[in-house]
Amino acid sequence: PKNDNIQVYIKDRLFHRNEAKISVFDSAVQGGDAVWEGLRVYPEGIVCLDKHLTRLHESAKTLAFVDIPSKTEIKKAIKQTLDANGMNDDTHIRLTLTRGEKITSGMDPRLNQSGSCLIVLAEWKPLVYDNKSGIKVISSSQRRNAPQFLDSKIHHNNLLNNIIAKIQANVAGKDAGLMLDERGFVAELNGSNVFMVKNNTVYTPFAHACLPGITRNTVIDLCKNNGVKIKEADLSLSEFINAEGAFATGTMGELTPMVEIDGRDVNRDCVLMDKVLMLFKDNIKGLCESVN
Ligand code: PMP
């Protein structure tokens, strides 16, 4: 009920959620032709805001969007939205930039008439996972996009393979789908990155076939700066199942142990994993940036 009366920012102004609509001619409807970011709001500010805006800009530039709003303009839109809704904590922002409205149906970017369309959808939301009990996952038959098909560095709205993986997890009664890359190595979960611990070292898959998550990056930096051995590697399902500890990372769930993979319990009693989880907890508020 808290979100029943929220205001949503579209293009250049706020709308009540019931009136927050984009055109059927918008590129997002016509071809999933949009990029996005998920942001987390705390009283101290927005976690890694500048990095999220950089990734949004890089994704939009790669896809040759035109009339892309500047970081300053996006921050202004975010501030306006948060202020209108009285939000400063426990809030998730879904930031979307579509290529914009077209003059007729079709996928050709030249049909776009009015430049890109910014959407700031802010809602009160707790973290998506209970970090204490951890999550149970299944390995999905749906492969994560390989870079030769769609560059995983682009944070785009073509989410269908992730959605198929999530459907498989739902059908199995688990929390998330663990996606492999086209070679069969672990890539990521359907909406978060993955790490594991073995021989006193923290490992994460190379970012070839996963989103180079901002939380993933934060964890890598925290390990490097605190004397924790961290490596990127090709990692198999068996290595994750038999890890000393495994966890997922993402803005919406932060750090969450993976306690089960394909019905096998994954070890949870891992001092090094607990240390990384604690490092993240201790440092996250320092990563918040104000929009003022
Ligand atoms: N992988 C996928 C497929 C995602 O959608 C997300 C969240 N946008 C992540 C990983 C985590 O990225 P981040 O840490 O930047 O939120």
UniProtKB/TrEMBL annotation:
Its cofactor is pyridoxal 5'-phosphate. GO terms for molecular function: branched-chain-amino-acid transaminase activity. SUPFAM superfamilies: D-aminoacid aminotransferase-like PLP-dependent enzymes (SSF56752). Its EC number is 2.6.1.42. Pfam families: Aminotran_4. Pathway: Amino-acid biosynthesis; L-valine biosynthesis; L-valine from pyruvate: step 4/4; Amino-acid biosynthesis; L-isoleucine biosynthesis; L-isoleucine from 2-oxobutanoate: step 4/4; Amino-acid biosynthesis; L-leucine biosynthesis; L-leucine from 3-methyl-2-oxobutanoate: step 4/4. It is an enzyme of class 2 (transferase). GO terms for biological process: amino acid biosynthetic process; carboxylic acid biosynthetic process. This is branched-chain-amino-acid transaminase. Transmembrane segments: none annotated. It comes from the Bacteria. The keyword Transmembrane does not apply. Keywords: Aminotransferase, Pyridoxal phosphate, Transferase. It catalyses: L-isoleucine + 2-oxoglutarate = (S)-3-methyl-2-oxopentanoate + L-glutamate; L-valine + 2-oxoglutarate = 3-methyl-2-oxobutanoate + L-glutamate; L-leucine + 2-oxoglutarate = 4-methyl-2-oxopentanoate + L-glutamate. Belongs to the class-IV pyridoxal-phosphate-dependent aminotransferase family. It comes from Patiriisocius marinistellae.
